[in-house]
Design a protein that fits this description.
Chain lengths: 316, 316
């Protein structure tokens, strides 16, 4: 078992806001009902491998206590998680054989309909903030409550690109690092060229853009250069839900855990994010991360290094 | 300009069989009529950057002499290219905005209908053989004429997977390295898992499988390990025609040029293939390769190294 306290005791905490959900998911390999899910949960559990986490979100009175205990045991502070009357946010979806595209069956906003994030005072000094996928208006409400963050990272999805482009643009303006998948970046920027899309996003303010490409890896663009994280050929994907969230959570957790925001560190963080995401999709919900050991993470990271290697940087 | 003789004089020649064509191509960035094309041409021009090439194919009496002069000037031996009565093979196609999928408008087999490869005697001792995309029956006819090749590499396409699966299976049995794109490997093996597809292909005989993923890079599987070649984010793709052929041609040319078939060499060859393919799609037909300098190749290779780097292999 992963002992968060051993590894993350001295690291700066990451503030994470996003959905906390009960998911019903069907894939060709099985079905899971009312499982722990939501962008903030996936991201927080992933980040907690590297740094303490302060979670901001909302659940209903029906949210199982065991999930709260599990999150707390992972070093995730829940003082920012509101527990209110009503039902927890629920998502239900399925995946076909190719596992790349989620088909949403139903979304029940429930307690999310009237949610407004309220940060406990201790959260407001957060150095590292991750705005996981959620209504950009709520992402802005969080930013209004943090004092002077060192690094703001945001994620989003096509739903907000289409529905709230102006608010999303404002979030991006105030972020240091933006996560989008390739289709979203192309859609938001209206160009097929990913380098061009990344430049347009950086022109709004951020110093780095990370393009998520699912099974094909990820690209990290900075003003000075770009990095192509290796794609990890999966033997078997059980449930791709949360891949993007664990990727971003692992990334932010690694950066907060090391406190290093140099380009070299961002490259490693991109790989650690890929490592955690590739492990997460080996089981439903966050089940694979529940039984994860530090050795699992080190072993997969070493594998990423070995599959990417073709020539030492020193020689030409 | 690339001086093939300087670079490739001492290397073993590569025997390449495949189509020689006149292509009419329309992309969002323009249109080119009756341009030099065909799998064997793309592959040969790419391979000629690293090794001499012996070309096997057929053209009609209408094939422009200037193309023959150009190929000869690149160190490509044309004694295996039959020039016969009739019209050269013609392909016409277009690409949409996303440039990933070619839409075929017309295919005229012409002189290809009655083509049977005839290898000049000097070709029969070829050490390196590349069976570019062509009817698997013709690929087998070439293999029947070579004496004891050191390395046989084959490519194919969905058309033959559907139309001649048994003949294709026989080609794969006799090949050392198989190239397929991800969709083709999944289709041929009936599995979504690329590692599993690669294992099934290797079970037929080959010692390595290369999965082409277009803009997402490539995977090299051997019995012992796998390698994920970086995806190169293109600023602008002008014409993706021949990307797979130049990738494979660059790969085979590099291996023949070095004479090194170790796993380390196959990894570098995969990257050199990606380098040549990424350059080729910057212009129509093989126009970018016409004006390519050795420095262009070295520069792009160094760029692939730098975009893939995140941590030296020595440290953990």
């Amino acid at each position: 078992m992963w002992n968060a306290a051993d590894r993350t005791g001295k690291a700066a905490p990451v503030l994470i806001v996003g959905s906390v959900a009960l998911d019903t998911v069907e894939t060709p390999l099985g079905r899971e009902e009312n499982a722990l899910g939501g962008a903030a949960v996936y991201a927080s559990v992933a980040a907690s491998l590297f740094a303490p986490v302060n979670l901001v979100g909302v659940v209903g009175a029906d949210f199982p206590r065991e999930h709260l205990s599990f999150l707390t045991a992972r070093g995730i502070d829940l003082r920012g998680l509101q527990v209110v009357e009503g039902r927890t946010f629920r998502w239900s979806g399925s995946y076909d054989y190719d596992l790349n595209q989620a088909h949403t069956r139903s979304t029940e906003l429930n307690v999310f309909e009237d949610f407004h994030p309220r940060l406990p005072d201790t959260y407001r000094d957060a150095g590292f903030v991750f705005l996981a996928n959620i209504d950009p208006d709520l992402q802005l409400e969080v930013l209004a409550q943090v004092r002077s963050p060192r690094l703001v990272v945001c994620d989003t999805m096509n739903f907000w690109i289409e529905g709230k482009p102006n608010q999303l643009r404002e979030v991006i303006r105030r972020a240091d690092i933006v996560f989008m998948n390739d289709a979203e970046a192309r859609q938001f920027c209206g160009t097929f060229s990913l380098p061009r899309a990344a430049r347009e996003l950086m022109a709004l303010g951020p110093t780095a853009v990370i393009i998520k490409k699912g099974e094909h890896g990820a690209l990290l663009f900075t003003r000075a250069s770009h990095f192509s994280a290796p794609s990890y050929p999966m033997e078997q994907v059980v449930d791709p839900t949360g891949a993007g969230d664990t990727f971003a959570g692992g990334f932010v957790g690694y950066v907060a855990g090391t406190g290093d925001i140099s380009e070299g560190s961002l490259r490693k963080a991109t790989v650690y994010g890929s490592v955690v995401a590739s492990l997460n999709i080996e089981d439903f919900s966050i089940n694979r991360l529940r039984r994860l050991t530090p050795e699992d993470v080190s072993r997969r990271y070493a594998e990423f290094k070995s599959i990417a290697f073709f020539e030492a940087m020193e020689s030409a």
